[in-house]
């Protein structure tokens, strides 16, 4: 068309070619066709510009969504840091609870050792004081166990709060997944727009090859190509950002999984600590029950011992040998003292000791009765001999002859039945319980005999101390 116009603008001195009406009609038809193609190309350019503007608007919305995702990730990271701090605090509290548990175990072991030593070392008169001390110690242990349970409850509440934070993080992950799906939809739309722009580019190339004179269309096409390149670069940048966000989300998921594992481990440790605290309370209650049972048994044994001593005293006072029975009080006290020492050396219980003392007392009474029977038989035999023989002038009175054998016990009577001297009886009566509390000189010998049977050792010790 430009060539045709240039030919028209040539000087008039050239002879114009002859133009027929047919040529004019063809030229007019060609001009109309070119005008229609130009209008179509301008409409396509306007449509392409509209698409570019829509792509820019979508890119702005994508950038806003990316910024929102970045803010949500920052908030989630802050929540993760807070959760990590709370987990560290829980771990520190758990370590403190472990230290307190170890301290409680050590204190309980020391208290148990002290209680056992006190029960084995002190006398029966101080049992009530030790029981009160043990009850005070048990009360303190119960208070400490209650404080441990309160701390465990606080740790469980903190763990529940951590679970709420993990639920919020899961919600944030769900929102991020939704945003990623929307971004993928936007990417698919951009790909479709790229395909449409490639089709338009092909059409524009075809139009440019058909009409090389349309410079404005070429400039618009170049601008469109440049805008499309910028849009592709921005799309690549947004894809890189999305990949970075996905990597950060994977790292955050791994951290959350690690936090979940630590939280589960901490819950398991808390449950184990609660079970250990329950076992400790059960052991404390069992120890208290045992102490109460031992106290009840000791009181019952004391009552039985008093009743037996009363019955034995009445029985001995009713018997003819009252002087011999009266001389057995310091001997019984020394036997009880020796039995207590034997119990302390051998580590026997109060009930076993009481049974052993009762057995020895029964044996001693049987020996005493046998000795008295022998004395009576000897006296009756002598009376019969004197009645059968004639009376002598220098003979002793019957009472003196009858009582003479009683002055010296026969050889068959055991040493424990022989009466103690009056001086030793007076000394024993004067010293009283103070003499019983003094440690005997034969404790080392009793310790050396620990390999023997408990009954034989205790009987040997009791008899040895009685004779001394």
Structural summary, described in words:
Residues 449-461 have a biased composition (Polar residues). Residues 1-20, 306-336, 387-468 are annotated as: Disordered. Keywords: Coiled coil. Residues 24-158, 348-382 form a coiled coil. There is one protein chain. With 468 residues, this protein is an all-alpha fold. It folds into two domains: 21-295; 319-387 and 399-467, no CATH class. It has twelve helices and no strands. The model is unreliable at 322-327 and 390-468 (pLDDT under 50).
Helices and strands in order:
Layout: H1 2-8, H2 21-121, H3 127-210, H4 215-318, H5 322-326, H6 328-346, H7 350-388, H8 398-407, H9 422-431, H10 433-437, H11 443-448, H12 454-467
Helix pairs in contact: 2-3, 2-4, 3-4, 6-12, 7-8
How do the helices and strands follow one another from N- to C-terminus? HHHHHHHHHHHH
Give the number of DSSP strands: 0
Strand content: under 5%
Number of helices: 12
The proportion of residues forming helix, as a percent range, comes to over 70%
Shape: rod-shaped
What is the SS-derived class?
mainly alpha
What is the arithmetic mean of pLDDT? 67
The number of distinct structural domains comes to: 2
How does the major sheet shape up?
Answer: none
Coiled coil: 24-158, 348-382
Region (Disordered): 1-20, 306-336, 387-468
Keywords: Coiled coil
Biased composition (Polar residues): 449-461
